[in-house]
Amino acid sequence: CALQPTECFLSQPEEKQETTTVKAKRRKKKKISDILQKSAPKPGVPADLQNLLSQHFAGNRSVIEIEELTLSDSCFLPANDLTHSFSSYLKEICPKWAKLRRTHTEKKAVVMLVICSSALRSLELIKSMTAFKGDCRVLKLFAKHIKIKEQMNMLEKGVFHIGVGTPGRVKALVEQDGLCLSSTKFMILDWNWRDQKLRRMMDIPEIKKETIDLLEMSIIKLCREGSLKLGLF
């Protein structure tokens, strides 16, 4: 009765120390921003998107399906080598823009689609394309503060030349027959831009998935048929 089991308390402080070390180790998991801070930005090239698509589809598609979802180099416009402003890039890839703009008369359609990671970034790009767009109508295609029905009405009633927005909203508009891609000639992905956390659009899982879904839905087919070209800005 008089014996006290004091020895069992001795190991406690050690255990505590061990768990805090494990927690600290867990916390030190590398974030994408840590990796990117140490590496110089490299401009995106067609092979980057091609590899991304083949990795994405590799596990759950047959060989024939993967073949149908493969993009060749001929599907791409020249990529931005990081020296361009948005306007100068668009001028390089689309020198005959004035003529294309004049001849486009279709409703529910745009000549050029620009896909980026957020509403805020869409607005930035719209502001920065002034030297390129000339006398054309640009439509915001993101979900923030704009109802999809509003965008569908605008597309149905007027002629727009450029659509700038997020992949999720563009995909929803195509699915709901609010936007037709048959007369779209260019789709530009805002590939190289990095947000505050240094993530590019394809580093954000949700944006990456929605972009790939949009590409798979109809863009890849249009690229393979030669009616649409992809650009990596």
Helix content: 40-55%
Helix-strand category: alpha/beta
Order of helices and strands: HHHHHHEHHEHEHEHE
Rg on CA atoms, Å: 24 Å
* Secondary structure: number of strands: 5
- Please identify the top-level CATH class: Alpha Beta
Task: Say what the CATH topology is.
Answer: Rossmann fold
How far apart the termini lie comes to 80 Å
Q: Main sheet: which strands, in order across? A: 2-3-1-4-5
Strand content: 5-15%
Number of helices: 11
Describe the sheet with the most strands.
5 strands, parallel
CATH superfamily grouping? P-loop containing nucleotide triphosphate hydrolases
- The CATH architecture classification is 3-Layer(aba) Sandwich
Uncertain spans, ≥5 residues at pLDDT below 50? Answer: none
**Average pLDDT:** 89
Give the total of domains: 1
Overall, the morphology is globular
Structure description:
The protein is of the alpha/beta class. It has a single domain (41-232), classed as P-loop containing nucleotide triphosphate hydrolases (Rossmann fold). It is 48% helix and 9% strand. It has helices at residues 12-27, 32-38, 46-58, 63-68, 86-93, 97-103, 119-128, 130-133, 148-157, 167-175, 205-225, and strands spanning 112-115, 138-141, 162-165, 186-189, 229-232. It has a five-stranded parallel sheet, sandwiched between helices. β2 (138-141), α9 and β3 (162-165) form a beta-alpha-beta unit. α10 (167-175) packs across α11. The longest helix is centred in the last third of the chain and has 21 residues, at 205-225.
